[in-house]
Amino acid sequence: MGLSKAALAATAKMVLKAKDISATCTSQQDKNVIIKAAAKLALSAQQLLTCTQVLAPTIDGIECQEQLGEAIKQVALAVDDTVDIAHVSCLDIG
After folding, report:
1. pLDDT (tens digit, 9 = 90+) per residue, 25-62?
2. Residue 44, CA distances (Å) to 4, 13, 38, 40, 82 in order
3. Which of 1, 17, 35, 78 could disulfide-link 44, Cβ–Cβ 3.0 to 4.6 Å?
4. What does the longest C-alpha to C-alpha distance in the chain come to?
5. Hey, what domains does the chain have and what are their CATH numbers?
6. Rounded to an integer, what distance in angstroms lies between the CA atom of residue 89 and that of residue 23?
């Protein structure tokens, strides 16, 4: 549970950073794309925390472990997407 909460806190910081990065973009479309990716990231992190809370009592079951693993993969994909989109959308962010 603690790791899920830490992941949620870290992704919250990343969402705020994405918001800051989007402010440097000159195109409204680029800003919107970054904000959408950050929102997806926030949602996937919240889903991970919820999944962890629901599955914690039965984590010994293989199905529960697979569900939790899938939730973790979704957060990782959302992180990668957010970073990639930010770099592509605002090439001058250094």
Report:
1. 888 998 999 999 999 999 999 999 999 999 889 989 99
2. 11, 14, 10, 6, 12
3. 78
4. 50
5. 2-93 (1.20.120.230)
6. 11
Q: What is the tens place of the pLDDT at every residue in 76-87?
A: 999 999 989 888
What does R_g of the chain's alpha carbons equal in angstroms?
15
Which residue type sits at 19?
Answer: K
User: Residue 59 contacts by C-beta under 8 Å, 6 or more apart in sequence?
Assistant: 65, 68
Q: Which of 46, 22, 50 is nearest to 36 (CA)?
A: 22
Distance between CA atoms of 89 and 75, rounded to whole angstroms?
Answer: 21
CB count in 10 Å sphere of residue 47: 15
pTM of the model: 0.82
- In angstroms, the Cα distances linking 76 to 23, 25, 79, 82 are 24, 24, 5, 10
